[in-house]
Amino acid sequence: MALMEDDLERSGLVAADLNARPLDSAERAATNTPHSVQGYVLPYFGIQGDSVAHYRVKLFDFDPKYKQPKDTPNHVYFPKGFLEIVKDSKYVIITEGEKKAALAVKMGFPCIAFGGVDSWRNRVFTIPADAEMNASDKNIRARIPAGTEVKEDMMSPLALGLQDFIDYMVVSGKTVIIIYDTDNKHGTAHNVQRAASALAYELRFRGIPFVNIRQILLPFTVTGDKVALDDYLIGLGPHALEKQIEICLAKRSAFPRHPNVRDYINKRLQSMKMSRREMQQVSMAILSELDSQGMRLKSRAALETYYFDNKTHKLLKTGFSKPANEMVDSPFGQYLYRKYGIGSADARLLQWLGAQFTGEDPIDDVQPFKVFARPHASQIEHKDKVIYQISDGQYVELSATIEPGSETPGLVVKDNGAESILFESEQVEPLDLDKLKAEYAKQYKAAANQPMTSWWAEVLLNVRLVDKDKARIVTALLFYMSPWLLRWRGTQLPIEMTLGEAGSGKSTLQTLRLNIIDGMSKLRNAPKDMKDWSASVVNTGGLHITDNLQMADKNMRQHLSDELCRLVTEPNPTIEMRKYYTNADLLSLPVRCVFGITAIKQPFLNADVLQRGIMIELDKTTDLMNGSLTYDSVWSDTMIHKFGGREAWAAHHLLVLHKFFLLVRTKWNMRYQAKHRLINFEQAMLLMAEVFNFPKPAEWIPQYLSGISNKAITESDWAFEGLIAFCDYRRMTNALVNITSQEIANWAMADPEYEKCGELSESRRIGKYLVTHKSMIASICGLVEDGKSNNRMRYKLVQKSKG
Predict the structure, then answer these.
(1) Fewer CB within 10 Å, N- or C-terminus of the chain?
(2) pLDDT tens-place string over residues 199-227
(3) 158 and 234 inside one domain
(4) How far apart are CA 367 and CA 317, in angstroms?
């Protein structure tokens, strides 16, 4: 009796806590315990608190220390009082050993126990007689000796009471927390951790959610070779365990990990015929490893899944929707091969992993960025910043804020995933971070208290621009803004239309820009249809350049024109696409890029798209006439290296934006009245010009921007061109009033250049045209409505807008 009391006292218990009693002769006989050995009985209880026939005995100075009646199955141990405290708890602890569970319950923690880490299943197996020996047709019952490892592919019945416990946990939605002994050297011993993971797989297979199965590895903060649950409670008290449980429940996932998952997977995959249960368990082992080292994510809008690796900070597209032979070629497929040896031959496993990847919580929604990030406008901390991806695992944040003591004022480097900013991998060629920071610091020092030097203005001197005066300055400013300031404060950036005959350098110029921005220089082919174009757009970040665009199909030209207009001016533009050619499922994919085209001649005719565009015109005629026409195949690389390389160019752009944001702080006018229709574009252009101290930008840039739009519209619209000619004619004759649509039609029919222009030479059509384009005609032509006479609208000529 004294030995029992001392033993229980060391575990913080008294006999009444467990209904423990000294060992008697009947129990000695049932457990085959010698009469000379002292010990005591640990009675078992059911989940409802009722007594059950099963018990175990604790023996002193004997090996093994614990025994149970011969040939009896294992039971789950539910301590006295378990039912009373579990009702108000969000979790239940599973541990090894009756005394640990009893102490936990005594201290207010709902806890159950197994007699050993593998005792959640029975060691008594039913084996067909012809499997091992020639016997009768009856079954032979065999007991596996204690200490023998139970192979994880054995099908075994559960310990009595465990199914009742699982049913209760499934219905109640509570979380299972496995707490086994912590080893001083290894965290948990290999066989203990293997048992924890095997139990977790079984619990999941039988219905407890993945996210509700967790494990705590008790920190080694008390003396001894290992820490058990009772050691921790006695040594540090219940508050310490409460803290560990709080931390565990706050984690995204704490599913027990297999101690050697790659070996476990490969051994299992050696079997040619794996059961459904086995395949799920292998997949679950991989899933628990993935969750321990990263996050599973999905885009509800795009119906795409991703994996974020905490170590490399890479966001990998999984590709589970693809066939296995294609999926394994993806970055995530390569990751699975490197980590776990999984290849295309494991298609069945990949199917299970794909199902569990999205089916098991936790999995969060994500809308990853590409090259540039512009978080939602409600996130005020990101309002005046540029967030730029420099590698798969890092990005830089550029603002006007100068951190004290910073070597790169305004520039902060962050790991991918910081502040919930996630960039998709394989979108940029990585920049050398040390070089980038060194270049930024050097340029910052050189530009202290003086205007910046425009590298783009210098580069454009070597480009065959039609106008190397104003057009060069405006194009240089555009390149500093686009795509860097897309959606900044709602800023809308124009469609960049680089026009010129073959060999004028259109593609080379845009290749240089792309090389600087993302290092990939992906010029897009002219689309075959709108679906082709949409897929290209939604998979592009930063700058989307369609090269050599020709629009022979009028319907597609109209459709593309309408889409460009919508995407440029919508606050949060998206493209809707059907999923996998289905009739019902629609994807709503965000569009986060600036649009550019190169073309020999203007492919668009509609005024709406031209007003949203900016023309960059190239002409090689001058070079051809003076004999200096040459083609430089490495011009783009030359321009990059001339200024110190891609890191120097990126640093230059970022520093320009830093200076720009400093000006914004003091000079941004929220009530600025612009001539250009795109939000903030004109005012941002003026402030960017001030960064470089370009002379008197306010006196000419607004007029220039509206002028090039008007020029593009008039040159592409035959009727508008004729209307301008008509107004010039009436001004020459000083006939400024009483103008009707019929007079315009009569003039057009008499002019050989416009007589075949139906829009102009038919009075009803020109009447509708004047109404439809009223404001643009008033601005460019100075032709405005002057009231009705005899139910006919009359017009008059007034002074035209400047530009």
Answers:
(1) N
(2) 999 999 999 999 999 999 998 766 667 88
(3) yes
(4) 12
